[in-house]
TrEMBL record:
<protein>
    <submittedName>
        <fullName>Tricarballylate dehydrogenase</fullName>
    </submittedName>
</protein>
<feature type="domain" description="FAD-dependent oxidoreductase 2 FAD-binding">
    <location>
        <begin position="3"/>
        <end position="441"/>
    </location>
</feature>
<dbReference type="Pfam" id="PF00890">
    <property type="entry name" value="FAD_binding_2"/>
</dbReference>
<dbReference type="InterPro" id="IPR012831">
    <property type="entry name" value="CobZ"/>
</dbReference>
<keyword id="KW-0560">Oxidoreductase</keyword>
<dbReference type="GO" id="GO:0016491">
    <property type="term" value="F:oxidoreductase activity"/>
</dbReference>
<dbReference type="InterPro" id="IPR003953">
    <property type="entry name" value="FAD-dep_OxRdtase_2_FAD-bd"/>
</dbReference>
<dbReference type="InterPro" id="IPR050315">
    <property type="entry name" value="FAD-oxidoreductase_2"/>
</dbReference>
<dbReference type="InterPro" id="IPR036188">
    <property type="entry name" value="FAD/NAD-bd_sf"/>
</dbReference>
<dbReference type="InterPro" id="IPR027477">
    <property type="entry name" value="Succ_DH/fumarate_Rdtase_cat_sf"/>
</dbReference>
<keyword id="KW-0274">FAD</keyword>
<keyword id="KW-0285">Flavoprotein</keyword>
C-alpha cells in the first residue's frame, strides 16, 4: 500500500510529495494532465512573495512580517484568517534554501517588474522551470508520478481517507478503466474550478442585462482545473470556506487564448492612463495603489461592466514605462479616431477623456512612488499618476476578465488537515488553491499564491508523514515545517 498519496501536480502538490518523501514515506503523486501540461497553474507563475528582515541574495532592503501582513490585510479587506496568513508569511522567509536543494534557482527582478525587487523572489526560468525541477527531484527520490490520472472520487470512513478512484486515459474514445488506489494518508492539492464553465455559470449567474458574465471570462491558467475533486469533497460534507465568485482574476488582453495564456497576457499600463467600458465611461480609480498590489482587482471590475469588456487608454508619454503586451495595441492620432477603431460611442468617449484631462492636478510624476499627481472634480478620482492623455499617438488595449484560480475551497488549520463538522481528519490534508480561500477571502497581491502553496504544501507533506509515525528531518533541528 502507498504511504502518502498526493493528488495534484502543481507547486503545492510537489512540495507535499517531496516533504513526505524526505520524512521516509512511500509517496505516489497523481497528475490529471498529460506530462507535457504538468504543473497546473504553477507553470505560469514567476515569483514568490518573501518576508525578510535584511537584504537576502535576490531581495533588496527588507520586507518585515507586519508590512507583509498589512499588504495582505489591505487587498483582502480583512477577509483572511490571520493565524494561517501569518504562518504563510513566516514560512516564506525560510523556504528558499529548501527550494534550492530541489533544483529551483532564483534571479533578481527584471526591470519591467515594477516595485517588487524588495518583496518578491523571481524563479529563474519562471514557473515551468520550478515545476520541472521539482518533478526531477521527485523522480530522483523515488516518488511515483502518474500522469493522465484524474481522481473521480474519494473514499472516506468517518473523516478518514481510505482510497481514491482514478480514471485512466481514454481508450479509442471510451472512458479508461477506473483504478482504486489505497493509501495510509492523502494530500489534496488539485486546484480550483476555474476551468469548469458550467460551475462558473452557476456561481456568477445572470446579471441585470440578462448576460452570463462568466461566458466572457478567459482562463489564464490550466484547462485541467475542472474542480472535480473539490465538488466531490463538498458533496461529502467537508467544511468549506470562500465565496465561489471570488478568485484571482486579472484584466488581461481580450485577444488572449481561452486557456493557458499565463502572465504574458496581462496588461500592465492601467495605472498609467484610464480604463473605460464599452460605453466610453471610466468606472474605477486607476491610480489607487502600486500595480502589484492592485492588478488582481481589475478582472472583477471588468467582469462587472457591460459585456465584460474594458479598454486601457494611454498616450505616447507612457510608452516604455510598462512591460509591453504580447499583442500590439490599437493606435490613433486623435481621440475621435481611436473611439472609431474601438467601436466606442465617440462623443461619450472623447468627453470622458477631456473631463479627465481637465481634472488632472499634475505634480511630480513618479511611477515608482505614490506620487502627487491626482484628479480633482471628476468621478471616479484617480489618486496617483494622473497626467492628461493628450500626446498622440494614443494607444488602447482591450480587456477581458482572466481567471487564474478560484477561492472556494476546504477549511483547514495550522496542520493543513481537512475538517468535517469542525473536526480535523487524522489522515487527509489539503494544500494550494484548494485551501487558499482560508488566506485569500478576496483580492490578491503578487506572489502570495506561491507563498500559500509552498507553505501549506510543505506542512501537508510533513503532517501526512507524521500521521504514519514518520518524522521529517527538519523537526530534529527545531525547524519543524509541520507547524511553522
Amino acid at each position: 500500500m502507498i504511504d502518502v498519496l498526493v493528488i495534484g501536480g502543481g507547486n503545492a502538490a510537489l512540495c507535499a510529495a517531496l516533504m513526505a518523501r524526505e520524512a521516509g514515506a512511500n509517496v505516489m503523486l497523481l497528475e490529471a494532465s498529460p506530462k507535457e501540461w504538468r504543473g497546473g497553474n504553477s507553470q505560469h507563475t514567476r515569483n514568490l512573495r518573501c518576508m525578510h528582515d535584511d537584504p537576502q541574495d535576490v531581495l533588496i532592503e527588507s520586507y518585515p512580517e507586519d508590512e507583509y501582513w498589512q499588504d495582505l490585510l489591505k487587498v483582502t479587506g480583512g477577509m483572511t484568517d490571520e493565524k494561517l496568513a501569518r504562518i504563510t508569511i513566516r514560512a516564506s522567509s525560510s523556504c528558499r534554501d529548501w527550494m534550492r536543494k530541489h533544483g529551483v534557482h532564483f534571479q533578481p527582478s527584471l526591470s519591467g517588474a515594477l516595485h517588487v525587487a524588495r518583496t518578491n523572489a523571481f524563479f529563474m526560468g519562471g514557473g515551468k522551470a520550478l515545476v520541472n525541477a521539482y518533478f526531477r527531484s521527485a523522480e530522483r527520490l523515488g516518488i511515483q508520478v502518474r500522469y493522465n490520472a484524474e481522481v473521480t472520487d474519494i473514499e472516506l470512513d468517518n473523516g478518514r481517507f481510505v482510497a481514491a478512484q482514478v480514471a485512466g486515459p481514454e481508450v479509442e474514445g471510451r472512458p479508461g478503466p477506473v483504478e482504486r488506489i489505497e493509501a495510509r494518508a492523502c494530500v489534496l492539492a488539485a486546484g480550483g474550478f476555474e476551468s469548469n464553465r458550467e460551475w462558473l455559470r452557476e456561481a456568477w449567474g445572470q446579471n441585470e442585462n440578462g448576460e452570463w458574465p462568466s461566458d466572457n471570462f478567459l482562463i489564464r491558467g490550466t484547462r485541467f482545473n475542472q474542480g472535480v475533486l473539490l465538488r466531490q469533497m463538498i458533496d461529502k460534507g467537508v467544511d468549506v470556506i470562500g465565496d465561489p465568485t471570488q478568485a484571482h482574476m486579472v484584466a488581461i488582453d481580450a485577444r488572449a487564448p481561452l486557456y493557458d495564456g499565463g502572465i504574458c497576457t496581462r496588461i500592465d499600463c492601467v495605472s498609467l492612463g484610464v480604463v473605460v467600458n464599452r460605453d466610453g465611461q471610466r468606472f474605477y480609480d486607476e491610480g489607487e495603489d502600486f500595480w502589484p498590489k492592485r492588478y488582481a482587482i481589475w478582472g472583477r471590475l471588468v467582469a462587472q461592466q457591460p459585456g465584460q469588456v474594458g479598454f486601457s487608454i494611454i498616450d505616447q508619454t507612457s510608452i516604455g514605462r510598462f512591460m509591453p503586451p504580447v499583442f500590439p495595441g490599437t493606435k490613433a492620432n486623435t481621440l475621435d479616431e481611436l473611439a472609431g477603431k474601438l467601436q466606442l460611442p465617440r462623443e461619450a468617449f472623447v468627453k470622458t477623456i477631456e473631463d479627465y484631462n481637465r481634472a488632472c492636478r499634475v505634480g511630480t510624476f513618479d511611477h515608482t512612488a505614490l506620487d502627487d499627481c491626482y484628479t480633482e472634480g471628476v468621478m471616479p478620482i484617480k489618486s496617483h499618476w494622473a497626467r492628461p492623455i493628450s500626446t498622440p499617438p494614443f494607444h488602447a488595449y482591450p480587456l477581458r476578465p482572466g481567471v487564474t484560480f478560484t477561492y472556494l475551497g476546504l477549511k483547514t488549520d495550522e496542520t493543513a488537515a481537512v475538517h468535517f463538522a469542525g473536526k480535523p481528519s487524522p489522515n487527509l490534508f489539503v494544500a494550494g488553491e484548494m485551501m487558499a480561500g482560508n488566506v485569500l477571502g478576496k483580492g490578491y497581491t503578487a506572489g502570495i499564491g506561491m507563498a500559500i502553496g509552498t507553505a501549506f504544501g510543505r506542512i501537508a507533506g510533513v503532517q501526512a508523514a507524521a500521521a504514519l509515525g514518520l518524522q521529517h528531518p527538519s523537526a530534529s533541528t527545531g525547524n519543524d515545517h509541520g507547524t511553522v
